[in-house]
Design a protein that fits this description.
five-stranded mixed sheet, Nucleotidyltransferase, domain 5, 14 strands
């Protein structure tokens, strides 16, 4: 087996994914830890990293690079946001140094964009996946690309000549969870009804008047005889369909541009159905592989900076 040369971590709100990589960026080992920053006390991230993460890989002497919410005010230390437009070079120059057994250790900054109504928009972690996606194929660093990262807070990113120009966040995943747990749409049923999901996509229309469209999830059951167990799937389709139909326009796009779906395969498959229904060309890419590529590319540039 190849020798490990780098410890790379994607440390989010709910869990920590870590890999050791060889000198060419290939994965040597991979582990996950139940160490999401939301579960840690102030100052605990550094201690748990040294006491648990590094020893799990025997990686105390390896350089380390980390991205995600570990760089927020909930994590290890605040890595200030890098402003759009920015690419790999700008992010590498903005890496924040931390101490970890005296080794070279850096945290990737999040990114900040001009948002809606004059307010900023922010991300942490998704920027590293995006930069990895760009690093995986130099052709992607030319021209304009639309990249969607589905998730609790989905990101729609506009890339121009290898730099993230602007992005918009949609709280679709969180809204699904809140409505499914704390509203009249509350249900314990799994969201696995394909027919109801497709019905929800159709009900999303062009994504406007979402508050009115949402009530159809209840009315179709109490007034239309649909099974209550189908509500989560219908709600999922309605929310995702509304997002894919409307959010690209917030980036100044027509909504017909091809979309690169980057992230979890299951979520990307749902978004792919929504885009296909709207006649939008799309392609899906592995978010974990992109995260690893992004961490390695930033490490290489960061060491040279």
């Amino acid at each position: 087996m190849a020798n490990a040369a780098l410890l790379a971590c994607d440390w989010g709100t709910t869990n920590l994914r870590a890999w050791t990589l060889d000198a060419h960026g290939r994965v040597v080992d991979h582990k996950e830890f139940d160490l999401g920053v939301s579960k840690l006390k102030p100052g605990e991230a550094a201690r748990r990293f040294e006491a648990e993460v590094q020893p799990a890989f025997a990686a105390q002497g390896l350089p380390a690079i980390l991205c995600g919410m570990v760089g927020s005010n909930l994590g290890w230390t605040v890595a200030p946001y890098a402003d759009c437009p920015a690419g790999l070079d700008e992010l590498a120059r903005a890496l924040v140094a931390v101490e970890a057994h005296g080794t070279w250790a850096r945290i990737v900054p999040g990114m900040r964009s001009e948002g809606l109504s004059g307010n900023p928009d922010v991300m942490r972690g998704e920027e590293t996946q995006l930069m990895g996606w760009l690093a995986q194929n130099p052709d992607r660093c030319r021209g304009r690309h639309v990249v969607c990262h589905p998730g609790t807070h989905a990101k729609w990113m506009l890339v121009e000549d290898g730099r993230l120009a602007r992005f918009v966040t949609a709280m679709t995943g969180e809204l699904f969870a809140v409505l499914g747990n704390h509203s009249v749409l509350k249900s314990d049923a799994p969201a696995d009804d394909q027919e109801a999901f497709a019905e929800g996509l159709a009900a999303a229309g062009d994504g406007d008047a979402l508050a009115a469209r949402l009530f159809t999830a209840r009315a179709r059951v109490v007034g239309g005889g649909k099974r209550a167990e189908s509500t989560p799937s219908y709600l999922s389709g309605l929310l995702i369909g509304s997002e894919t139909a409307s959010v690209p326009r917030l980036l100044g796009l027509s909504g017909e541009e091809p979309v690169a779906l980057l992230g979890d395969a299951r979520l990307c498959a749902l978004y792919a159905q929504a885009l296909a229904r709207g006649g939008v060309a799309h392609e899906t890419f592995d978010g974990e592989a992109a995260a690893v590529a992004g961490l390695f590319a930033l490490y290489q540039l960061g060491q040279a900076a």
